[in-house]
């Protein structure tokens, strides 16, 4: 059940009574986009976020009988640097367990946080992303307002590259502890590879799913602040031609 909705600049937002309703509604919206796109093109290319906030929407997509995954190519938007390949916190592993390895994608492209040369890895992944237009980005928002790992100190709306190595700020790293992904701040990697804001906003459709009270302040700022700025990286969605924000009763504001 939708308990509130509205629009801030171009960004459409809805608040659902429960986290489950939020995730299922976002999944249904994304499925409809995929099916509509496949009616007029051979392939859909998608970027996915890896975070506990995405669990419900990923489950909804995984269980959907109406998506021809054999015509969908997948990317993920960030990856820690320095984790062991089998680390449960790895974003590639997270998505493989919840979606990428569960349905028959046409292709899945992984960022390599173990690469010997990160400049070459960023260039490789950028080239894959830029081969053809990206249709859909399924993303979340961090406690500091980041999208992917574009924390406020490194966010650049006019970034000249599509993938880069970034240093994670302390709020971002603490969020990984708050989400239960790491036991302590010392366990959280300090650097990652991340798609940049121009890469994320190049897509035709942005579907943003943000549950939980820990994100409430970031959501409040997103929907009330007048200025779109890199101090709140997620605010760039307000300029996008097709961006939808799905909230639950804990993240949404009255």
Name the poorly predicted regions: none
Strand sequence of the main sheet, in spatial order? 1-2-11-10-7-3-4-6
- Residues in β-strands, percent: 15-25%
Percentage of helical residues? 25-40%
**What kind of sheet is the major sheet?**
8 strands, mixed
Mean residue pLDDT: 95
What is the end-to-end distance? 15 Å
Mind telling me the C-alpha Rg? 17 Å
Count of individual helical segments: 7
Shape: globular
Extended strand count: 11
Structural classification: alpha/beta
What does the oligomeric state look like here?
single chain
Give, in order, the helices and strands: EEHEHEEHEHEEHEHEHE
Structural notes for this entry:
The chain starts with a strand and ends in a 6-residue tail after the last strand. The protein has an eight-stranded mixed beta sheet, with helices on both faces. The protein has a three-stranded antiparallel beta sheet with strand order 5-9-8. The relative contact order is 0.20. The protein is built from seven helices and eleven strands. The protein is an alpha/beta fold. β10 (205-210), α7 (216-224) and β11 (243-248) form a beta-alpha-beta unit. The chain is 29% helix and 22% strand.
Short structural summary:
This protein has seven helices and eleven strands.
What are the SSEs and their pairings?
Layout: E1 2-8, E2 11-16, H1 19-38, E3 44-48, H2 55-62, E4 72-76, E5 78-80, H3 91-100, E6 107-109, H4 118-130, E7 136-139, E8 163-167, H5 170-178, E9 191-195, H6 197-201, E10 205-210, H7 216-224, E11 243-248
Parallel strand pairs: 2-11, 3-4, 3-7, 4-6, 7-10, 10-11
Antiparallel strand pairs: 1-2, 5-9, 8-9
Helix pairs in contact: 1-2
């Amino acid at each position: 059940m939708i308990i509130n909705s509205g629009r801030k600049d171009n960004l459409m937002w809805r608040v659902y009574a429960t986290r489950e309703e939020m995730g299922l509604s976002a999944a249904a919206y994304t499925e409809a986009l995929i099916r509509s796109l496949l009616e007029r093109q051979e392939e859909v290319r998608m970027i996915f976020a890896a975070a506990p906030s995405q669990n419900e929407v990923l489950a909804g997509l995984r269980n959907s009988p109406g998506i021809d995954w054999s015509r969908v190519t997948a990317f993920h938007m960030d990856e820690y640097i320095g984790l062991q390949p089998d680390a449960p916190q790895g974003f590639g592993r997270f998505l493989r367990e919840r979606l990428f390895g569960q349905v028959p994608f046409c292709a899945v492209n992984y960022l390599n946080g173990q690469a010997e040369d990160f400049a070459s890895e960023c260039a490789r992944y950028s080239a894959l992303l830029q081969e053809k237009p990206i249709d859909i980005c399924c993303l979340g928002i961090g406690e500091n307002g980041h999208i992917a790992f574009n924390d406020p100190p490194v966010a650049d709306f006019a970034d000249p590259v599509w993938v880069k190595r970034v240093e994670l700020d302390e709020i971002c790293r603490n969020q990984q502890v708050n989400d239960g992904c790491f036991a302590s701040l010392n366990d959280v990697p300090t650097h990652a590879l991340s798609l940049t804001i121009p890469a994320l906003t190049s897509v035709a459709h942005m579907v943003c799913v943000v549950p939980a009270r820990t994100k409430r302040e970031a959501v409040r700022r997103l929907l009330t602040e007048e200025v779109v700025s890199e101090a709140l990286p997620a605010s760039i969605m307000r300029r996008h031609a097709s961006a939808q924000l799905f909230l639950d009763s804990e993240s949404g504001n009255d």
